Amino acid sequence: MAFSLATDRLVLDDLTHDDLPNLQRIARDPDFLKYVLVWLDTDEQIAGFLRNAIDEAGSEDRVDYILAARTKDTHEFAGLTFIEIDRQHRTTAEIGIVLLPEFCRDGYGTEILQEYIRFGFGTLGMHRVFGKCDALNTASVRLMERCGLVYEGSIREHVWLRDHWRSTNYYGMLAAEYSRPDS
User: Fold this and answer.
1) Superfamily of segment(s) 4-177
2) Residues 62-77 pLDDT 10s
């Protein structure tokens, strides 16, 4: 059974085999590679990532929701998103968003993050949701802060990321801090 969430302008739904070219485009985008601590360097790695996402979507005990963001009107692929429940601490989930350049700076990230926060606390019953980003990724920092996630700290220069030592900032929200938009 296919899974989906919706925002005002987007549908977030399970990846399909047809999304391979979309994932290849993201993985080959230098702006994506600049900040993301993921190595999808070969077509085999990208195809393996897609297979794992599709397999997880069919799991009875699903913990990873790796979803495509598609426009509601044309179903155009806008990006890759996820909310992943921590396998050891099942009350915590990480949220992530990677949008294609033409979908950046137009409020799509805000819609997705707000929907994942709602889904995480409402449907999944999480105690904590969090996101992390390269400290140099100011757009991600602003997005998380705009959506109410609180800066929790940084791990300084913990890994070499292609051309710089990456410092990772963590932002989180607790269930007690979440207020439903309809309340």
Assistant:
1) Gcn5-related N-acetyltransferase (GNAT) (3.40.630.30)
2) 999 999 999 999 999 9
